[in-house]
Design a protein that fits this description.
41% of the residues lie in helices and 13% in strands. The protein has helices at 5-13, 40-44, 71-84, 96-108, 119-126, 136-156, 172-189, 206-221, 255-265, 295-308, 331-339, 349-365, 385-388, 390-411, and strands spanning 67-68, 88-92, 113-117, 159-164, 196-199, 226-231, 235-238, 241-243, 272-276, 281-282, 321-323, 342-347, 374-376, 379-383. Strands 1, 2, 3, 4, 5, 6, 9, 11 and 12 form a nine-stranded parallel sheet that branches. Strands 8-7-10 form a three-stranded mixed sheet, with no helix packed on it. A two-stranded antiparallel ribbon has the order 13-14. Helix 11 links the parallel strand 11 and strand 12. The radius of gyration is 22 Å and the shape is globular. The two termini are 38 Å apart. The model is unreliable at 1-29 (pLDDT under 50).
Length: 439
């Protein structure tokens, strides 16, 4: 994969919010061929040993490899999830520290992971000191995060789907900029920069939702990129989008609507997933306040299979579903939904808390050492640098997040998937002069 500072600059500074999307010829469900020239590690000359150097995994389809997967490799990974009854955790990230925690957790659980950026998270990744006029900061931030994921995913030796989260109609220029970057990246490397994007037009009329998604999927299909679309509304509040007062009936998708989407998108490409609503709510709420109805998904699968007749897949699960608003959900509901064709579950609220909780607990443990640069219970002249070193609190946040993600992987039945076995403990404990953490 040809990767250079010049390429990065051309992608970030190229066409800004990008060209308007164009219509194309409808095509059958094919994925554009991918012929990678080099891995990121080969291009940059970074060390690549053990899992990083593997071409594939013992328990996975041969196309699935360490690093970011796109095109057919991504489809093979998602199909493997559906066939083997697990879903892949999709974690929203706003920093390189959060990304590294996700990669560490994936390797610890011997599993794939989806790393995704929201528009607000992308802007934060780029820096709040940058202007976001015409979504410039959000575009540059997401691209910067994408290159971090691409560089480090190989190092951790796990397959990663690189995704962007909710994109409402007003945010389409943001995705346009990222799509243009992926088209330029594809021209040089044979694959898109991102694996997939979500277009969330659930608040628009269904006909408009489908028409716009068709236009985007036509463009996505040319470079082997997957579209995630939302049907019905996920309640609650996330990243500045507030659906706490939405009508109850809008929280539940109808089988006929899901078939309408399937029927419209399938002739263009099979590279799409559906975030159907079955009572999902963003955020965490007290037990009993969220009423999930996973059986909506199996009723939709049965309805569409009946419509397809002999063309229905053998498992009678023609649609790959995405579970939004899963934080705080009952594990039995989550696993029931997986049985009905859910292959991805979004995680944000729980990992936001785990990251903060790690910092909070670190401050509580070392409180008396964090009140000044000098002076602690060991003496008035004792220095505190090794305690307020930012790496300490951030590492505490990462460790706590890895532990929380362990539960997510287990809930989604996404453990011991790759066949790598237990990860070796990292050799980074030799002290601050040799790169380890002081405390």
């Amino acid at each position: 994969m040809k990767f250079s500072a010049a390429l990065f600059a051309s992608i970030v500074l190229g066409s800004g919010a990008a060209d308007a999307f164009t219509a194309g010829v409808r095509r059958t469900a094919k994925v554009s061929p991918v012929s990678l020239k080099e891995t990121i590690s080969e291009e940059l000359g970074t060390p690549c040993e053990d899992e990083c150097a593997m071409d594939s995994f013992p328990n996975m389809p041969a196309s699935v490899h360490p690093g970011v997967v796109t095109g057919q490799a991504m489809l093979d990974l998602l199909d493997h999830a559906k066939e083997n009854g697990y879903a892949i955790p999709a974690v929203n990230c706003v920093s390189s520290s959060g990304i590294n925690a996700c990669l560490e957790a994936a390797r610890k659980n011997d599993a794939p992971i989806i790393i995704q950026f929201s528009s607000g998270g992308s802007q934060f990744y780029g820096g709040k000191g940058l202007s976001n006029k015409n979504y410039a900061a959000a575009i540059a931030g997401a691209i910067s995060g994408a290159f971090h994921v691409r560089t480090m995913a190989e190092q951790y030796g796990v397959p990663v789907i690189l995704h962007t989260d909710h994109c409402a109609k007003k945010l389409l220029p943001w995705v346009d900029g990222l799509l243009a970057a992926s088209e330029r990246y594809h021209a040089k490397h044979g694959e898109p920069l991102f694996s997939s994007h979500m277009i969330d037009l659930s608040e628009e009329p269904i006909e408009e939702n489908i028409d716009i998604c068709k236009d985007y999927l036509t463009r996505f299909a040319k470079i082997g990129m997957l579209l995630e679309m939302e049907l019905g509304i996920t309640g609650g509040e996330e990243d500045g989008v507030n659906n706490e007062d939405v009508a109850i009936e809008d929280l539940y998708s109808k089988p006929e609507e899901i078939f309408q989407v399937y029927d419209a998108l399938t002739p263009i490409s099979n590279m799409f997933t559906v975030a159907a609503a079955f009572g999902n709510v963003h955020g965490v709420y007290s037990p009993g306040n969220v009423r999930l109805e996973p059986k909506i998904l199996t009723r939709a699968q049965a309805y569409i299979s009946e419509k397809l007749g002999d063309k229905a897949p053998a498992d009678k699960k023609p649609v790959s579903f995405v579970f939004h608003g899963g934080s705080g959900s009952d594990v039995s509901d989550i696993q029931e939904a997986i049985g009905y064709g859910v292959i991805k579950m979004n995680i944000d609220t729980d990992t936001q808390w785990s990251y903060w909780e790690g910092i909070k607990n670190f401050e509580k443990k070392w409180h008396d050492y964090l009140q000044g640069q000098i002076g602690n219970p060991e003496g008035a002249d004792k220095p505190n640098k090794k305690y307020y070193d930012p790496r300490e609190a951030l590492r505490a946040a990462e460790t706590n997040t890895v532990n929380r993600l362990d539960q997510c992987f287990a809930d989604l039945k996404c453990t011991n998937i790759l066949g790598l076995g237990a990860a070796e403990e990292a050799d980074n404990v030799l002290g601050p002069r040799r790169g380890g953490l002081p405390v």
